[in-house]
Amino acid sequence: MSAVLTQIQQTNMVSNSSDQKADKTGPVTTALCILFSIIFITSLILNSMAAWIFFNINKNTTFIFYLKNTVIADLIMTMTFPLKIASAFSPEWLVIKQIECRYSAVIFYINMYVSILFLGLISIDRYMKIVKPFKTSRMNSFHFTRIVSAGVWMSMGLLSFPNMIFTNQSPKENFTECSQLKSDFGKQWHGAVSYINILIFLLVFFVLVGCYLSICRYIRNTEKQFVSNRDMERKSNQNICTVLLVFFICFVPYHMCRIPFTLKQIQNDFDDNKNAILNDAKKITLFISACNVCLDPIIYLLMCKSFKTLLVQKLNLQHCSPFNRGTTRPSRPQVRRFREYSPTGQ
Ligand SMILES: Nc1ncnc2c1ncn2[C@@H]1O[C@H](COP(=O)(O)OP(=O)(O)O)[C@@H](O)[C@H]1O
């Protein structure tokens, strides 16, 4: 009799767990797993190539140094995708979800914000080189660039490290959210880090818009003063807009969703319907943010001349590259200076 009861209990547990699986791996999760697999492979190819090119570039400018850091952050972030996919697709493997919550997701977020900060630094670097090329500032020195870069990695790492330490509660059989593995202090810390990171995002967003508006204005004035090269102006403006567009599309939706989502995690008093909507919205917008790893290589191609040249060389595309076609070179010294520091000129 007891053997039969045990058997029934086991069958119930299996069917509960498969019900749970069916529930958790709903259409949104399944679609996101497939999409994450696609960007994992794409990003691995694009960023490995980008890393290979960057580490073969002999030129060492502050701009290239920041781009190298972005590639590294993108590659590390890409490495966290498989665990994200596995934990979403196999909710019955609690240990995978636990590792995802405690380590992998935290590494994902660290690298996302490192990327965001480097995009901000890249835009400040462009602003200094284009708009104030003769101003010798400490910000232009390579030494300063290294210190700032180390600061970015360390501050993001130290800020987020407690999110690993305080994700230390034993998982319940039916746990679905990482916040359920956190102590009370862990939840508070997680909330603080989320909001600090939202502020960092806003700061970078305004820096980016400010820098690029100034650059656009400067380019327009310079063009009017020195040359009537409409093509060059249009190209520079296009490149600048691409960075802004990539930043806006990738990161704005996620940050709009993150504020109520974090509130839900900390307060835990939202109704089921709101919970479900917020969960799906956060998953989808987080995926859009993750797509940044595939879009950054486009920025390197558009903004970094040395990258473009070496890529064409390595792929042996000199004869068929559209990049080699008709760029007129103005001869005046002022224009040469403009070209040297233009968004496509490094
Ligand atoms: N901005 C952030 N910086 C560092 N770690 C974060 C950040 N946001 C969330 N985390 C951590 O990543 C893990 C997953 O968080 P989150 O995505 O909010 O939860 P869930 O996977 O349950 O939706 C948690 O351990 C959390 O503390």
TrEMBL record:
Region span, Disordered: 326-346
Record key words, sorted: Cell membrane, G-protein coupled receptor, Membrane, Receptor, Transducer, Transmembrane, Transmembrane helix
Topology of the protein relative to the lipid bilayer: Multi-pass membrane protein
Record's subcellular location: Cell membrane
Entry GO terms, CC: plasma membrane
Residues annotated as domain G-protein coupled receptors family 1 profile: 46-300
Family to which the UniProt record says this protein belongs: Belongs to the G-protein coupled receptor 1 family.
Name by which UniProt lists this protein: G protein-coupled receptor 87
Organism, as annotated: Erpetoichthys calabaricus
